[in-house]
Amino acid sequence: MPQNEPLTHLAKAQALSGFAVLVKNMLWETDLALLGAVKSEGASDDDKRMLRTAHDFLRQQGQVLEKRIVITFALNLDRAMQTMYRDLRRDVKDLTADDLTLIDDEVVNRLIEVDRVVTRFRDGDQVDLGRISLSIARLHGFEEVRERENPFRPYLLARALHDGLRELVADDTLAKLLFTHLSSTMASQLPTFYRGIRTVFEDGGVSTELLAMRSPQAREAAGRAALAPGAVAVAGMAPKQPDAAVPHAPQASPVLPTAAEMAQRRQSAALHDFVWKVLNQPGAVKARAPQTGGGPADGFDARLRLAQKSAAQSPAAGAAAGAGAQPTLQEQVDGPGASDQDRMMAGMVDLLFDFVMRDPLIPPRLRSQLGRLQIPFLRASMAEPDLMHQPGHPARELIDRMAAAAIGTGADPAADQSMEARIEQLIGQLLNRFDGDIGVFKMCLAQFEGFLVRQLRFHDTRTALCGESIDEAESIAAITHNTTLALQDLLGPLAIDPRVFDFITGPWLEVLVHPLSWDPQRRGPESHAALRHRELLPELLWSAQEKSTAQERAELTALLPGLASRIRQGFELIGLDRDRAQQAMDQLVAVHADVLRGKPAAPVFGKRVLSMEQLEGRFHNMQLEAGNGAGADGRPVVVRPLVLRAALARREVAATLVVSYDAHPAQQSDAGWLRQMRVGTAVLLRIDANEVPARLSVVSPHGCLYMFSPLSAGAAPHIYSHSTMLKALQDRQIRPLEHAPLFDRAVASLIGETEEPIVMAG
């Protein structure tokens, strides 16, 4: 079962924000309740004294308590998110006596207190809590729903409240009083808290009529019940009771299922088990061996090839059928040569494509085109059953990418027609060429990706110029990052005046990596200008070292005018701010004055002092290159907003920039988001107070920058950094029109087709 990590992490974000609001309201309402209790006439003096103490505590320590509770809940939630449907406990046989500890009375009392409140919390909103637990179970593909696997379960809320209080309140009586009042107030607010989390799952497409699988034993028992006396035609339903209004009415004879009905039930149960095995047990279903030699299986292969050829020759047949067409593989599997596993796989693929043909997000004509992939996808699935577990498998990815590009179309008829024609062409190409080689899917996928990049990036002049600016800014960022690392390696072992080190890794680094340093013909960093700027480094380093002889001082005096002139030329080339340039030059003048006076910076112990020849040799092989555009931690490098604005200004094009870099720490859900955020993805982009349809039109080569183009005419594109885009997705400032890729949604629907619904009350 594919897991929808972005959806669970959206629910986590909602839980954290909702809990913070809940705690704030809880403290405020409890404060008012305690004040009212103090003023009531029914309480004794001792009770009023304790209530007043509790009220004073909340007034004095309320903010501290609020922070403790929220932080404790966040830590507990992080742990719970990692352990959903994962048993990380050690096996009993692996435990030793050193691992065991005695439980004291305090721990027991805490468990009793917390458990009592958990029961109250659970009773406060059973419906929403139950639906959330079922959502979590379904997303993880488990047949048994267990509340302890729900990371938003009441226990974590009660534990956060209890532990937060115990950290601040030493008096046991006061702590219990506060815990009672605060938990009572919290319980009254839980429906709002849980409703917010439930809404995230429902908005993400997780049905509230969730599904749980029957075990084979349960289905077998249901089958026996169908044949038992008093059973009705539909197995599993209770026998109908005689009409109470007619006491002596004769009871109808039980209707036993026919042999055909029983066979259909057995077939459905077998398909149910097969689907579960394919989706949850990698390697359990073996690949279909290629058949040769004219045996019966060759007939099955021949029928599939013939059906595929027919689909290739009739590209309009599916489109003419319209949105309601549901292709079937029954004709292909009924003949000789098809094994039971072949029939099961065909039934599974048939159900998958039934969802594709009914998906309301995809325009009908494009649904029909995707339906033509049914036969080659079946053949690929029989050859590689584990493709169901591989999100990056070319067969899955081709379907996902074509569907994602088709969603949200309609604003530009000419572009839509071009894309539909390209999809039809590539599907026809695949139908003609595929004969078991998955590389054909990979080739068609690469061609479609290239088409999308070209069509969206060069849709209009502004988008094309913004794309050039993004590429240039990312290239500068990558070269800056890698050049900084190279300079640190080269300079680290040397005895260098700190002022010179700051100059080289500061303003002169900007000269080295600036695009105007590159040869306009070659457009590469190893241009003549870049080489001249790099060759200045050995001279600058040598000029800042101690000069012990008159000849060395004379050589330095002769070198300095030319060195200063070349530095100024570099600053002018990049348009460095006059004040910064003058400050940098003043620093170097001070360095050289110290050297000529015989008072250079003292060399650091263990650092090396090299001659001019040695320095030239050390920097000769220094490369200025972008590399893979990723930092040492594997994440995309930082593109400075100033660099991006300058690149846009050089092309006289405007865009809205959202490119800060401290907004989103790395999270486990990032991979899921990034898998979905590909060129062509349709989204709703929040601009001011409105959600505007937009499409991801440009992604920089190394994934540092993402540009979304609103579909409304004249609207400025929005450029996000890697970090701000992930933060916007988490905060729902960017909402993909697909809550999950098409294949994942089809598999979720497939499980629904082979399972039995459990509809919760309410």
Q: What does this protein structure show overall?
A:
This is DUF1631 domain-containing protein. It is a single chain. The chain has 762 residues and is mostly helical. The chain folds into 4 domains: 5-87 and 99-208, no CATH class; 278-287 and 300-454, no CATH class; 495-609; 641-738, SH3 type barrels (Roll), CATH 2.30.30. The chain has 28 helices and 8 strands. It has helices at residues 5-39, 45-82, 105-124, 126-139, 154-168, 172-203, 216-227, 259-280, 296-313, 315-321, 330-333, 340-358, 364-371, 374-383, 394-406, 413-433, 439-457, 461-491, 498-505, 507-513, 528-543, 550-574, 578-596, 612-620, 641-650, 670-676, 722-730, 742-754; strands at residues 211-212, 656-658, 682-687, 690-699, 705-710, 718-721, 734-736, 756-757. The chain has a 6-stranded mixed β-sheet with strand order 2-6-5-4-3-7. β3 and β4 form a beta hairpin. α1 (5-39) runs antiparallel to α6 (172-203), α4 (126-139) packs across α6 and α19 packs parallel to α20 (507-513). The longest helix is centred in the first third of the chain and has 38 residues, at 45-82.
